[in-house]
């Protein structure tokens, strides 16, 4: 996008007018786009069929955000959109991702495949099977709703679209499939002629932590007595009923950062006026469990996404969710407490960000939208202790009106694994290190499971396995396994298959022997692991083969299985991670509008292993999420130079640990020296997290620089400190930036938010804030001359540390709107219909006159001789506010120009 807009906005005459209709907005957008045609290449026919697909208003700023799509032949062009910000009827900011010369680029107008064939092709190519789709509803001749096809958790909407592919616009079917395991929500474009997948995105954003070492935690604090904390104590609401939750409350990041406390009525009366357990907008709770208007928190220990509905803790009629935490046991034994904490924090993030503009009209997550604005029926489904993964968390964000899902997982135990198996007698007597699996019954903790060991022997009837001791084929010695602890090798089949086979043969537990010299692993369930109901674990190759040899030799081996730690860590108690995951929903709903979930694309090409190397983008999705996690866990007394690691609790680090990013976050370059140049360093990485880390670093610096100027306000809801200003500007910036933003786009949107902000007192204060922001970004290489290149590429950006030129630099104070040149030049008439006269008091010689629009695009340029009166005719300019620049060898003078 363009780097000049921020000060242009400062000179606009903004006035409030009656609300415009959608077509009025479209007309104004079309006029501005055509006005820019000389630079953008957009023609009148390209924007003839613009249509508004989403519209919302930000209460704090009074800005109406209009998101318009592009069509040809009444067929939408995928992700071709224009984002316009209006103050009344004045267009004050605009970005676009429109396609040009559309008519000459389309490849077809009639699809060869019908929507059922397209959906079947997509399912097959995604590795989900053929699907058994049927049409539930024909919305239009180009839009259909299909059933799940037995491959999707949700019904499948299908729409005919054009997709940019090289120089062509290819006719395709746009559809989405939410996979049955919940791990992907594929949004795909399928060629309407060949069935090939042309374009693909995953609405599930996964934040894996598995590559990081887990360390011992020095302490986990749990308060024995209940500490009562009243949030918003001076605000009462008769609709509330004394709700109380024993949690790690705002702003604590985790149990390592402070004590659990019982908080009473923490609901915000504006964001949740009927409390957290209401859904109908009438006084009185509809649910006494951890379910309500904003979130439904339940366990998914089975990892099957509600196939077997998990439980939610019940607070009874008093809504008293006071459940104990116990870290010296398997996390499942404090499931009620963990789920309560997950429910509390989802609601806290909802209520806080509501104050900053992530509200109902802007696509937030609620069952009932009490204002009647936008679409409801989309509370967050939050899965506690999800059994489908480990060392992870994710968030799936569909368009407005469809439920997002947050999945929180357990994390590997901190410290070395313990001795799970003890052999009591004989030459092998002693303890053996084991690692519990991710499925089946937990390893006993109170009373050891004691039984003889027995080998599981199969008939090697399958094609893949040649080891009769791996239980991958039909077990032949079932009688020997009844009541025994089965011993078998890791082999060619899934862990769930072999353990289930041993259980069905009568085994009471299973020991799997690793087949490589590496340490034992936490076995995944595979397709049938959810059917296993007995404890199972893995031991090392060395230990296991010794046991196998002894059993083959005919020895009787009696063993006990008992778990004494270290225990897995529950991600539901890492509040920074919860806020991070929720943040993905925020950035997805606000960028490109609430009805477009494809505007945060961190990868443009996938294969079976995920993002293809070199196809990860510059989009900073993970950056905003890290930022929300940091902001909502800031505490009084923190400083910018502090070390703030992400996910320290989950990965078993102390509070000053490095976390899961390349460095902790800190304004101290000795701790975090990342700059815009670092983005290119991460070019070869497929994960989006390193790029997001650089973006968070920049806006974290910005936040602390604003705090230094305006102070820190502990009231995160309604405070006026630098932290509140920063969070508001970031939220406003998300609404202003284009679809799939790069770093310069994100920077420019935040700067544009400064100019639109009525919460900044006057032009002097806006200039001061703008100066702080420019210096923050420039210090990390995203200065005035920085160029992001193509958002699809990570390596093509150019860093810069410069500030805007003097006449546009807010550090020099507000831009003057006095006559050009302080008496050297004057223009008349102004306002004008396009006839412009520039009176030159003192001859200046050769120069150039430029007219620039609100987004920094030069719409008129002419070389002139600056003497006497220079007469210009600027034809074809749309009504609005512009800058007129007179450039000479001595510099550039600027004034506003109003076209009537």
UniProtKB/TrEMBL annotation:
One family name in Pfam for this protein: Peptidase_M36
Secretion system C-terminal sorting domain segment(s): 827-899
Domain of life assignment: Bacteria
Location of the region described as Disordered in the Swiss-Prot/TrEMBL record: 788-808
Cellular component GO terms, alphabetical: extracellular space
Key words of the record: Hydrolase, Metal-binding, Metalloprotease, Protease, Secreted, Signal, Zinc, Zymogen
Residues annotated as transmembrane: none
Family the entry assigns: Belongs to the peptidase M36 family.
Subcellular location: Secreted
UniProt signal peptide: 1-22
Name this protein carries in UniProt: Peptidase
InterPro entries membership: Fungal_virulence_M36 (IPR050371), PA_dom_sf (IPR046450), PA_domain (IPR003137), Peptidase_M36 (IPR001842), Peptidase_M4/M1_CTD_sf (IPR027268), Secre_tail (IPR026444)
GO terms under biological process: proteolysis
Cofactor: Zn(2+)
Organism of provenance: Dokdonia donghaensis DSW-1
Gene Ontology molecular function: any one: metalloendopeptidase activity
Keyword Nucleus in record: no
PA domain segment(s): 470-547
């Amino acid at each position: 996008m363009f780097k000049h807009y921020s000060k242009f906005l400062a000179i606009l005459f903004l006035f409030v007018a009656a609300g415009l209709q959608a077509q009025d907005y479209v007309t104004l957008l079309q006029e501005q786009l055509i006005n820019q045609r000389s630079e953008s290449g957009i023609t009148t026919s390209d924007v003839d069929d613009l249509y508004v697909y989403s519209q919302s208003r930000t209460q704090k700023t009074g800005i109406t955000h209009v998101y318009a799509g592009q069509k040809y032949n009444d067929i939408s062009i995928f992700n071709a959109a224009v984002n316009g910000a209006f103050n009344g009827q004045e267009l004050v900011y605009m970005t676009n991702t429109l396609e040009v010369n559309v008519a000459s680029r389309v490849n077809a107008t009639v699809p060869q495949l019908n929507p059922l064939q397209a959906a079947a092709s997509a399912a097959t190519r995604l590795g989900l099977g053929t699907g058994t789709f049927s049409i539930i509803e024909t919305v239009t001749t180009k839009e259909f709703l299909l059933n799940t096809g037995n491959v999707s958790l949700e019904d499948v909407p299908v729409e005919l679209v054009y997709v940019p592919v090289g120089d062509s616009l290819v006719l395709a079917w746009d559809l989405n499939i939410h996979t049955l395991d919940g791990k992907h929500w594929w949004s795909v474009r399928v060629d309407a002629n060949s069935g090939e997948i042309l374009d693909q995105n995953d609405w599930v954003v996964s934040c894996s932590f598995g590559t990081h070492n887990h360390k011992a935690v020095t302490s986990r604090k749990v308060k024995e007595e209940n500490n009562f904390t009243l949030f918003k104590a001076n605000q009462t609401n008769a609709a509330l009923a004394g709700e109380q939750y024993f949690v790690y409350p705002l702003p604590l990041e985790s149990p390592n950062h402070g004590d659990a406390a019982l908080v009473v009525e923490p609901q915000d009366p504006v964001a949740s006026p009927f409390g957290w357990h209401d859904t109908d907008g009438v006084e009185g709770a509809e649910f006494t469990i951890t379910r309500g208007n904003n979130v439904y928190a339940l366990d998914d220990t089975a990892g099957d996404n509600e196939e077997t509905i998990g439980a939610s803790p019940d607070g009874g009629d008093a809504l008293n969710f006071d459940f104990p935490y116990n870290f010296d046991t398997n996390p499942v034994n404090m499931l009620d407490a963990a789920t309560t904490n997950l429910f509390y924090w989802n609601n806290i993030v909802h209520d806080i960000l509501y104050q900053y503009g992530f509200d109902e009209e802007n696509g937030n997550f609620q069952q009932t939208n009490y204002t009647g604005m936008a679409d409801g029926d989309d509370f967050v489904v939050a899965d506690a202790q999800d059994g489908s993964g480990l060392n992870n968390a994710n968030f799936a964000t569909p368009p407005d009106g469809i439920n997002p899902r947050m999945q929180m997982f357990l994390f590997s135990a901190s410290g070395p694994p313990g001795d799970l198996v003890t052999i009591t007698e004989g030459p092998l007597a002693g303890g053996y290190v084991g690692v519990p699996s991710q499925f089946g019954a937990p390893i006993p903790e109170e009373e050891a499971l004691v039984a003889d060991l027995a080998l599981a022997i199969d008939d090697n009837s399958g094609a893949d396995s040649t080891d009769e001791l791996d239980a991958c084929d039909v077990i032949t010695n079932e009688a020997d396994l009844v009541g025994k602890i089965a011993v078998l090798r890791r082999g060619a089949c899934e862990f769930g298959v072999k353990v289930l086979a041993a259980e069905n043969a009568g085994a009471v537990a299973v020991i799997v022997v690793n087949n490589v010299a590496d340490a034992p692993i936490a076995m995944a369930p595979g397709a049938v692991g959810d059917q296993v109901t007995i404890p199972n674990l893995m031991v090392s190759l060395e230990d296991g083969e010794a046991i196998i040899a002894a059993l083959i030799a005919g020895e009787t081996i009696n063993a006990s299985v008992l778990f004494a730690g270290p225990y897995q860590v529950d991600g539901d108690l890492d509040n920074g991670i919860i806020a991070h995951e929720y943040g993905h929903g925020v950035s997805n709903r606000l960028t490109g509008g609430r009805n477009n979930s494809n505007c945060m694309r961190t990868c443009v090409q996938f294969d079976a292993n995920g993002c293809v190397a070199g196809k990860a983008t510059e989009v900073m999705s993970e950056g905003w999420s890290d930022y929300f996690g940091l902001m909502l866990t800031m505490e009084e007394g923190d400083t910018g130079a502090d070390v703030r690691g992400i996910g320290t609790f989950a990965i078993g680090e102390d509070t000053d640990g490095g976390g899961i990013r390349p460095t902790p976050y800190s304004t101290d370059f000795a701790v975090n020296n990342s700059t815009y140049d670092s983005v290119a360093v991460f070019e070869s990485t497929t994960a989006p997290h390193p790029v997001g880390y650089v973006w968070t670093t920049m806006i974290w610096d910005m936040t602390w620089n604003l705090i230094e100027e305006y102070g820190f306000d502990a009231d995160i809801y309604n405070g006026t400190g630098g932290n509140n200003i920063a969070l508001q500007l970031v939220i406003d910036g998300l609404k202003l930036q284009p679809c799939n933003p790069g770093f310069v786009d994100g920077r420019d949107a935040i700067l544009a938010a400064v100019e639109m902000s009525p919460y900044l007192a006057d032009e002097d204060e806006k200039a001061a804030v703008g100066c702080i922001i420019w210096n923050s970004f420039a210090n990390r290489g995203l200065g005035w001359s920085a160029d992001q290149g193509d958002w699809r590429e990570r390596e093509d950006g150019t860093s810069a540390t410069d500030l805007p030129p003097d006449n546009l630099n807010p550090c020099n104070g507000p831009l003057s709107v006095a006559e050009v040149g302080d008496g050297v030049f004057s223009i008349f008439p102004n306002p004008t219909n396009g006839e412009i006269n520039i009176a030159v008091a003192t001859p200046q010689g050769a120069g150039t006159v430029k007219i620039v629009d609100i987004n920094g695009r030069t719409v008129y340029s002419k070389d002139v001789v600056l003497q006497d009166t220079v007469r210009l005719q600027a034809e074809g300019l749309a009504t609005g506010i512009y800058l007129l620049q007179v450039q000479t060898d001595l510099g550039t003078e600027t004034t506003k120009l109003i076209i009537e």
